Amino acid sequence: MNNKISVLRKSKGLTQTELAKKIGISRQYLRDIEIGKSVPSVSIAKGFSDFFNKSIDDIFFENNVVHGLQKT
């Protein structure tokens, strides 16, 4: 899963530790999400969405691809 968590986190000037605390997850789990090793649960994805004020699609999916389907 490609995501923009790292870019969004850095744009806010946050470390992985700081963002992880705000979302309520471990720094290691955040790192794994950022590098695509782990996929967040819906509730964690919603936490990122709420924190960054962006949709889950905007954060976790390519601009023109949603759930493996090309937007037309």
Helical proportion, percent range: 40-55%
The major pleated sheet works out as:
2 strands, antiparallel
What would you give as the CATH superfamily?
lambda repressor-like DNA-binding domains
Radius of gyration: 12 Å
Strand content: 5-15%
Sequence of strands across the biggest β-sheet: 1-2
Shape estimate: globular
Question: Average pLDDT across residues?
Answer: 88
Give the CATH class.
Answer: Mainly Alpha
Quaternary organisation: single chain
CATH architecture: Orthogonal Bundle
Please mark out the parts with pLDDT under 50 across 5 or more consecutive residues, or reply none: none
SS field, number of helical segments: 5
Number of strands: 2
Structural class: mainly alpha
As for the number of domains, it is 1
Top keywords for this entry?
72 residues, 434 Repressor (Amino-terminal Domain), two-stranded antiparallel ribbon, 2 strands
